Amino acid sequence: MSKTVVFVGRIAAIGLAALSLSAIPALAQDVDRMDQVIRASVDKDEFAGSVLVARDGEVLLDRGYGLANREWSVPNAGDTKFRLASVSKQFTAVAVMILSERGLVDLDAPVKTWLPDAPAAWDGVTVRRLLNHTAGVPDFTRLADYGALKTQATTVEALIARFRDRPLDFQPGEKYAYSNSGYVVLTAVIEKVSEKSYADFVTETLFQPLGMSDSGYDDHAVVLSRRASGYVSSADGVENADYVDMSVPQGAGGLYSTTRDLLKWEQGLFGGQLLRLQSMVELTTPGRNDYALGLVVKKDGGAATISHSGGIEGFNTYMAYDPDKRMTVIVLGNLNGAAPDKIGGDLMTLARGGTVTLHGEHQAVVLSPEMLRAYEGVFELAPNFALMLSVVDGRLMAQATGQQPLELSAEAADAFFLSAMDAQITFTRDAAGAIEGLVLHQGGREMPAKKKRA
Q: Are strands 49-55 and 58-65 parallel, antiparallel or unpaired?
């Protein structure tokens, strides 16, 4: 549920060194490279957690990295339990779809059908719009009082009361804005319709049928075996993460699981064990901002990736599925940061047969000052936030709004990297060959920016 800070602000190899790569089976090369990519973050103390990669049901990689508990030096493993944060949203979405299949929930009916005391402003707020973040309900995790709220035990009703009478961010269906509040409201709908608690409903309807015995709704008071502790990096090193009462996230981010249980989830969900075909089509059809129902669905060069990330105090998570090649990548981390997203994206690339270049492996090439000047300009990443590129003493410098300039090194025409941090920039051109924009690649994210006209 929390955000990850990246470069732009707001917005040791495992292998057989004595053998040539040709002497090592291709699958072993893949797995060794995956492990190497993960350890690049582990060695910098940017990642600790558990990782699983499976291709067509066959587990390729199933390993823990770093410590589940740093005070007792307990290592992470495939059966370590992590808070899922917003990866929980797909479970909430599937729970709603099951209720829809039972004829108990109409996705396009107003949410006031089940919550009749909702304000008049919510007349256009439907279940589907809550699922795909187009309802306009303000996100309670961005409100000024969230820092105090997150440490206090609460109920679904009390949470909804904190934002229900606030103005909508926009008219329902008008645009997209990610909102944890929407999934709290969906939690209330599930409980009202099923006449069970959210925790009981997802356990009985989702976890138990798939044999997910290491998954559930997290509760700080429960003594839970093999539960990872959450950590955060600071100027003084790694520290224990802030406390968050787990009654707060609800269906927006309150579940826990293991990498091995989540593989059962991916196989069960996409294997047709939970939903009918039509429901699966609805669940995975993207709307605005590539967001479907509790899942992000993107296509890149014909390859589809169905994924979701999550962040909560002490934990960052990533889970992705390629439906065409039936590949699963799961990265659960108990150290806040962007590493799970980056690692997850890189592992999916490797699993598909692609290549990944680590930060220290980029090789600079020399471009003439004349070529570099073609990249000069201001590129707007977000309102009031831009990258200004200019050539200074024969070097291409990038300066983000409010930050110090950093040198960009070319590794090819239109492809640059920053030596100071693990980030890359690729430029895009129009039909006439002129630079029209760029894409910042960092932390597993791709952030496009258009060049501002003079």
A: antiparallel
Instruction: Supply the pTM of this predicted model.
Output: 0.85
**What does residue 273 show for φ and ψ, rounded to 5 degrees?**
-85, -15
The angle formed by the CA atoms of residues 134, 135 and 139, to the nearest 5 degrees, is: 95
Q: Which residues pair with 399 in a beta bridge?
A: 388
List CB contacts of 147: < 8 A, sequence separation 6 or more: none
Side chain identity, residue 234:
S
Q: Which residues contact 27 (CB under 8 A, 6 or more apart)?
A: 60
Angle 26-42/339-351 helices, nearest 10 degrees?
A: 170
Q: Are strands 67-69 and 74-75 parallel, antiparallel or unpaired?
A: antiparallel
DSSP state of 230: P
Main-chain dihedrals φ then ψ at residue 348, nearest 5 degrees: -65, -40
Return phi, psi of residue 278, to 5°: -65, -35
For residue 299, the cross-strand partners are 304
Residues recorded for the chain = 454
The whole-angstrom separation of Cα 249 and Cα 101 is 26
Given a contact cutoff of 8 angstroms between Cβ atoms, the answer to whether 253 and 312 are in contact is: yes
Q: Report mean pLDDT in 10-residue bins for the chain, 454 residues.
A: 39 30 51 95 96 93 98 98 98 98 98 96 98 98 94 97 96 97 98 98 98 97 97 96 98 98 98 97 97 95 93 98 96 97 95 88 88 93 90 92 92 90 91 92 84 81
∠ Cα 222 225 229 (to 5°): 80
- How far, CA to CA in Å, does 129 sit from each of 28, 111, 137, 287, 399? 45, 10, 10, 10, 38
Q: How far is CA 129 from the centre of its chain?
A: 20
Residue 91's contacts (CB-CB under 8 Å, 6 or more residues apart) are 202, 206, 251, 255, 265, 294
Please enumerate in sequence order all residues whose Cβ is within 8 A of that of 405, keeping only pairs 6 or more positions apart, or say none: 392, 397, 398, 399
